[in-house]
Amino acid sequence: MAIQFFKSISRIKWVPRWSLLRNTEPENVMEHSWEVATLAHILGCINNEIFEGTLSPDRLAVLGMYHDCSEMITGDMPTPAKYHSKAMTKAYKCLEGEAQQSLLSLLPMQIKQRVSHNILESKMSDKEQKILKAADYLAAYCKAQREIENGNAQYRDVLVGVTERLNELGLPEVGYFLNDGKGHYAINKSMCHHDKTESSMEQCVAYF
């Protein structure tokens, strides 16, 4: 029954994020999914209105809403574990795929295929995947800024790392979102100025 699908994915509100760092503001996967959905929608609107693209902002919002629903089964695996090696990354992708299929199996056949287009990466275009990844990074970018503003220095390296990843994506939509399209964006250096010890650099690489 469809209600079983909803009951299952709604449990993501009990799944915490950022488990390897101290947090002044705890965050769960449901909160994160809302942020990613909103950010993806805004990036889609920028794609349409500023860069004359053809992406659907509404579809992007739905993709963001569902993008981590498999974590109801897998939990939020810390990035250092997820990308520790090619073998672990491959194993996690297989686990994620099985979790997604398990959730989809709870739906009636009449709507299963329709919903699968919003959950399975194989059903997304390359541009949709890239925008979704950017929205995910932007959510981390905002999270890191909030934590730093609250005096949590552990997130300085996260902010550095996620800014680098956003620049690597090279999306004009992200540039416009962060600084009205004035080129590549940079972090507030005063936020991130500190001695780069070995442990802090490892933390940066580990998360992004």
UniProtKB/TrEMBL annotation:
Keyword Ribonucleoprotein part of the UniProt annotation: no
Record-level Gene Ontology MF annotations: 5'-deoxynucleotidase activity
InterPro entries linked to this entry: HD/PDEase_dom, YfbR/HDDC2
GO cellular component entries: cytoplasm
Coiled coil regions in record: none
Keywords: Hydrolase
Gene3D superfamilies for this protein: Hypothetical protein af1432 (1.10.3210.10)
HD/PDEase domain span: 25-150
Keyword rRNA-binding in annotation: no
Protein's name according to its UniProt entry: 5'-deoxynucleotidase
Organism of origin: Marinibactrum halimedae
